[in-house]
Structure formats: C-alpha cells, structure tokens
C-alpha cells in the first residue's frame, strides 16, 4: 500500500505538464499500467506521428494525437456511449409531440446531451447506440464508413437458400436503387415462417423490411443484434448498458477514428 510520501510524489508528477503516456493508455482501456508500458517499449505507440519508446513520456491528450498500432486513442471523461435494446412500439427519438414512448423514457435524464446514432423503425427491436460524442456519432452514421449491421428477421412464408444467396449475389431493385445483402443465412424454418440472419451496410429507412417485402416475404418481426463490433448480447428489452472503453475504442477504430 503506498505511503504518504509516494502518494504525494505521484500527485506532484500528475500535476506536471501533460499526463504520463502509460497512464493515458491505461485510462483509455488498454490494460494495466505495466501492460501499457510494455506496449510503449515494444514500439507500438505513436505521438503526433512519432514513435515513442521511452517510458515516462508525457503528453497532452487535448492537443496531441496518440495512436496504438495505428489506431487513435480517444479519451474524454465527459463522453458516454450506451447500448440500448429498443422494444417494439418505442420511437427512435428523444421526444415525441404525439406522446409516444421514446428512447428518453428508457435512459431518462441521467446523461447530458445524449442522442441516438441511427434509428430503428417503430415496430422493430434491438440494438441502438447512443452517445454524447459528436465526432463518434458523425462517423458511425456516415455512409462513407459502411458500418455493418446484423439483424434477425422472422419472415412470412418459407424462403429457400437459393433466394437468400440471390439477395447476396444479385440483390433486388427498390424504388431508390439496387441493394444487396452482405450475408443471408436461414436459422430456422417451418411451413409458414422462416427466421433468417442478415448482414448489410445500408442504413436506409426500413431497408430490411423493404428488401424482403419486395420479393413476397413480409417481415413479421425484426431484431437488430449487432452494429459493427458492438453486440446486443444478453441485454434485456427496454434496458441499456454503458459501453466499456475497449468497446468504444473498437467502434471508433471501425469508423476510422
């Protein structure tokens, strides 16, 4: 256990200009101080484009850019990012003049200036990401970065593997152009219904429902289970959780930050 002298010395060091690089990396979720020190000495860390291998190097994260293995280190204690499991008949908005249930009714007013990154239609369920980090939100929602989204859809009727493959290889033509799925796999089927897992990059409105509806298989239920590296997992409907720094870092890396 540190004595008063060591605590005072540490406080003095931390009050000097900048923050020790290994401490910054630990705060950003890269592991223990010892592990972060090893990353530095192994030559995996850059500051403003320059390789840094010397322990004890101090940086100013507000003015200097730090990268690990080429990926930018982003740390802001005021930023928060949530994964929320949206139930059916909840509006993907923070307020509604018609008085319908919204995302605000789930997260409350605990987090300042938080907003949703993308939407799910009123009758769809599953993963929505929320944040007060404007830069992250802008990148996640920008078509340029093509974040993969995974859905589990319950369809009316029995769809064949051949049709699934055609949706990936050829796609379908909708009112706003051709669209393909990145992946389509049958999970379960009966005479009257089929459950499929689909992956696509497009964030167009009601895109999964429109794709299957256009070929005669209306979607009875739609659940989004993953956005980029972030999974819905065991998160209960109508609840949310705060993403770990490691998860935020992986999401940021996915969208070029």
From TrEMBL:
SUPFAM superfamilies: Alpha-L RNA-binding motif, Pseudouridine synthase
Domain RNA-binding S4: 19-80
InterPro entries: PsdUridine_s_RsuA/RluB/E/F_cat (IPR042092), PsdUridine_synth_cat_dom_sf (IPR020103), PsdUridine_synth_RsuA/RluA (IPR006145), PsdUridine_synth_RsuA/RluB/E/F (IPR000748), PsdUridine_synth_RsuA/RluB_CS (IPR018496), RsuA_PseudoU_synthase (IPR050343), S4_RNA-bd (IPR002942), S4_RNA-bd_sf (IPR036986)
SMART domains for the chain: S4
Name of the top EC class for this enzyme: isomerase
GO MF, any single term: rRNA pseudouridine synthase activity
EC numbers on record: 5.4.99.-
Domain of life of the source: Bacteria
Alphabetic keyword roster: Isomerase, RNA-binding
Protein name: Pseudouridine synthase
Native source species: Bifidobacterium callitrichos
